[in-house]
Each structure stands twice: as structure tokens, then as C-alpha cells.
Specification:
The chain is mainly alpha-helical. It has five helices and no strands. The protein starts with a helix and ends in a 5-residue tail after the last helix.
Length: 193
């Protein structure tokens, strides 16, 4: 197996291990379940279910790719695209991890309605209101550039769409929760970068 075949699968495994360890450590330290999306209802719960389905599909596509199996058309982009894919996926992971760290005890996956949280506007959040989602979207398109098939392109597009919908619902929630503070922050800092 080549680097091109193994990288997406290993990257996905490391991503899942990171999220599991981060969630476990957070729950142990803060004594709050960080998986707030499990308590969401309505449109948000459907969006999170779709994101779960897309990310699971991404994992399956990466696993099949590691064994040379492709569900749809493949492309053979020049080598610089492979390098760009690796760079984008690692950059996206770095942005996500940095944002997780800077959120501290305010970090959750989904909207937190049951516990007090503060608006985080420091560090990387001075440049992007949604660096975690930005990182995840970069990771998706990076993995597509490594796998180079139609399935990973479609999953990257769906990932971006569902995260954008989540962002819109979170913005409404944050405007209600933090009122003028969030509106001022929103005027200063763009949605992605």
C-alpha cells in the first residue's frame, strides 16, 4: 500500500481517536458531556445526524481507498494536488485542535443550552467565528485531494453544506444568548476568515 492509499484512512483514525480522547478528557475534567448535539431537537438534531452519516461515510470511503476499492469514478491529479491535500488536511486539523484548546471549558459539539458558557472571542476566534468548522471543511477537501474520487468529493461538499447549516443555527442561538456582545463580535469577525 502506498502513502496515497494509507494516508486518508490513518488520518481518519487519528481524527476519531483525537475526538474520543478530547471528549473523554473534557467530561472527566469539567464533568459535563461535551456531546451537546445529543440533546438537540428539531432541525439541529437532523443536521447532526446527517453530519454523523457523512463522516461515517467518509471513514468507509477512506478505508476502502486504503485497499484500492473505489465506489465511483477516480481521477489521477498531478502530484502537487496530493501534496496540497495533505497540507489542507493537516492545516484543518491544526486549526481545529487550536480552536478546541482556546475554547477551554466552553467547548462542546453542538449547542449548549443546559450549562453556562462564555463567548470565546480571543486567539484564533479573533480571525474566524467558526475555526472548528473551517478546519473540518479544510480536512474534508484535503482528504478529497488525496483520495481523488467522486465519493470523497460529494462527501466534502455535503460536509461543507451541513456544517454551514449548523453555523447558521448556532448564530441564531448565540444572538439570543449573548445579544449585543455577539452582534458586536459578528460585525468585527467574519464567519470563516
Amino acid at each position: 500500500m502506498s502513502f496515497k492509499e494509507l494516508y486518508p484512512f490513518i488520518f481518519e483514525i487519528m481524527f476519531l481517536l483525537y475526538l474520543a480522547a478530547k471528549s473523554f478528557h473534557f467530561r472527566k475534567k469539567v464533568r459535563i458531556n461535551p456531546l451537546a448535539f445529543l440533546r438537540d431537537k428539531g432541525k439541529a438534531s437532523i443536521l447532526w445526524a446527517m453530519i454523523g452519516l457523512v463522516l461515517t461515510s467518509f471513514f468507509i470511503v477512506a478505508a476502502l481507498h486504503a485497499f484500492g476499492i473505489h465506489l465511483f469514478s477516480t481521477w489521477n491529479f498531478p502530484t502537487p494536488y496530493l501534496a496540497l491535500g495533505v497540507i489542507l488536511s493537516l492545516l484543518g486539523a491544526g486549526i481545529m485542535v487550536l480552536a478546541h484548546h482556546q475554547m477551554g471549558t466552553n467547548w462542546r459539539i453542538g449547542l449548549e443550552k443546559d450549562h453556562q458558557v462564555n463567548l470565546v472571542a480571543r486567539g484564533i476566534f479573533r480571525y474566524s467565528r467558526n475555526p472548528i468548522y473551517l478546519g473540518l471543511i479544510l480536512m474534508g477537501f484535503g482528504i478529497f485531494l488525496v483520495i481523488q474520487d467522486l465519493a470523497s468529493l460529494i462527501l466534502s461538499i455535503f460536509t461543507s453544506y451541513f456544517f454551514f447549516e449548523i453555523i447558521l443555527s448556532e448564530e441564531k442561538f448565540l444572538e439570543k444568548k449573548f445579544k449585543g456582545e455577539y452582534k458586536r463580535y459578528k460585525k468585527k469577525v467574519r464567519r470563516f476568515f
